[in-house]
Specification:
Layout lengths: L3 H21 L1 H6 L2 H15 L15 H29 L1 H8 L2 H12 L6 H20 L15 H25 L5 H26 L7 H26 L4 H4 L5 H12 L7 H18 L4 H4 L5
Length: 308
């Protein structure tokens, strides 16, 4: 793509798709062990993207640096993020996880400044701040189903919180490493290669869990949902994100993570029969304002003075 507005649309669609499939994945998590689900998901992705693994004639062969980056992109963004997030949520709760995840835009911006040496404009910093506030409001707007008031905190909750912080770091690494990879590899090939690494990393766990799992007990609609989930998670959302990153700095792409909770909430309201309250509507407004602030074209006189 050659248009920045189109790149913004790709990034927004990618995060919206992530939010949607996260909301729809609840029955899958109830039907499959997490690591078995991940292994099957990556396996479906491998089959779907076999044609994307082939090196285009316009690309140079993979060097050692690119191979290392591809491994760490999958290790942090696919494998470790899933383990840290799911385990952290189980030890703390959904509200605590949502509040911690609100720091993802700031974490991506900080890491892109440290690693990629990107200059972050004041406008993008304000947009990131609005994104953090919007995501946090989504967390506080949802009713907590944690321990009753006055009850003792869950054991090892501090370990869960550390795991959630690690998940934020993993997501920031995913955005920053992805930006570096788009400089030398096509989005399709990046998606296929990091998915292949994800399949390799989860294969030992998947084989062990599959040995004792009763696949015949899984109904056909759940298998259909699993295929749709795998294609959305491994193929479409990754390709959209990497394509958008070709033209958008990693720090600015951080703002688009607000689409994840927005999309998840919309799916809950439209398809799962959930309700929406005034605080969530306010969070919607703040989330949209952060996107507008980050993507609105600069006045003509300031374009030459601003970087991204």
């Amino acid at each position: 793509i050659t248009s920045k507005p189109l790149a913004y649309a790709y990034l927004a669609l990618s995060m919206a798709l992530v939010g949607a499939y996260v909301a729809f994945s609840k029955p899958l998590a109830a039907a499959f062990p997490v690591l078995l689900l991940a292994w099957i998901r990556f396996g479906i992705g491998v089959v779907a993207m076999l044609g994307w693994l082939r090196r285009p004639a316009t690309e140079a062969p993979l060097d050692s640096k690119a191979r290392v980056l591809l491994f760490f992109e999958s290790f942090f963004g696919n494998f470790l993020f899933t383990i840290c997030m799911i385990t952290g949520v189980s030890m703390t709760g959904a509200v605590a996880a949502s509040v911690t995840m609100a720091t993802i835009p700031a974490a991506i911006a900080l890491l892109s400044w440290l690693v990629l040496k990107e200059r972050i404009s004041g406008r993008v910093l304000c947009a990131i701040g609005l994104a953090v506030i919007g995501i946090a409001l989504f967390a506080f707007a949802k009713p907590s189903h944690g321990p009753a008031e006055g009850a003792a905190p869950a054991p090892h909750s501090w370990v869960g919180q550390l795991l959630l912080i690690a998940a934020v770091f993993c997501e920031a690494c995913y955005a920053v490493i992805g930006k570096k990879l788009t400089g030398s590899l096509s989005p399709k090939r990046i998606a296929a290669l990091i998915n292949l690494w994800g399949f390799a990393l989860t294969t030992p766990f998947g084989l062990y869990l599959a040995w004792r799992f009763d696949f015949g007990a899984v109904p056909l609609p759940t298998w259909a949902l699993l295929v749709a989930y795998a294609l959305a998670a491994c193929v479409i959302s990754v390709w959209l994100w990497m394509t958008g990153l070709q033209l958008v700095p990693a720090s600015q792409s951080a703002v688009f993570t607000v689409m994840l909770p927005v999309a998840a909430a919309l799916v809950g309201v439209v398809f799962l029969g959930e309700s929406i309250n005034a605080l969530q509507l306010l969070a919607f407004g703040i989330a949209v304002s952060s996107l507008v602030l980050a993507t609105l074209p600069l006045p003509a006189g300031r374009k030459s003075q601003a970087l991204h």
